[in-house]
Amino acid sequence: MGKRKKKKRLSGVLSKHRRGFGFVKCDRFDSDIFISADSMNGAMNDDEVEVDLIPEYLWRESPEGIITKILNRKTSEVVGTFEKSKKFGFVVPDSKKYREDIFIRKKDFSGAKKGDKVVAQITKYPDKHNNAEGKITEIISRAGQPGGDIKALARSYDMRETFPSKVNAEAKAVKRKGITFDELKNRRDLRSKKIFTIDGEDSKDFDDAVSIELLDNGNYLLGVHIADVAHYVKEDGPLDKEALKRGTSVYLLDQVIPMLPKELSNGICSLNPHEDRLTLSVDMEITPAGTLVRHEIYESIINSIERLIYDDVSDLIEKNDSKVSERYVHIKDELFMMQNLAVRLSKIRHDRGSLDFDLDEAYITLDESGIPVNVGIAERRSANKMIEEFMLLANETVAEHFFWLETPFVYRVHEKPEADKIEQLKIFLRGFGIVLRGNAGGMYPKAISSVLDGVKGKVNERVVNSVALRAMQKAYYSTECQGHFGLALKYYCHFTSPIRRYPDLIIHRIIKRYLKEGITSKTARHYRKKAEYASEQSSLMERKAVDAEREVEKLKKAEYISYHVGEFFDGIISGVTNFGIYVQLENTVEGLVRIDELKDDYYDYHKEKYALIGRRTNRAYKLGDEISIIVDYVDLDKREINFLIADLL
Question: For the S1 motif domain, which residue ranges apply (predicted)?
Answer without folding.
Answer: 566-646
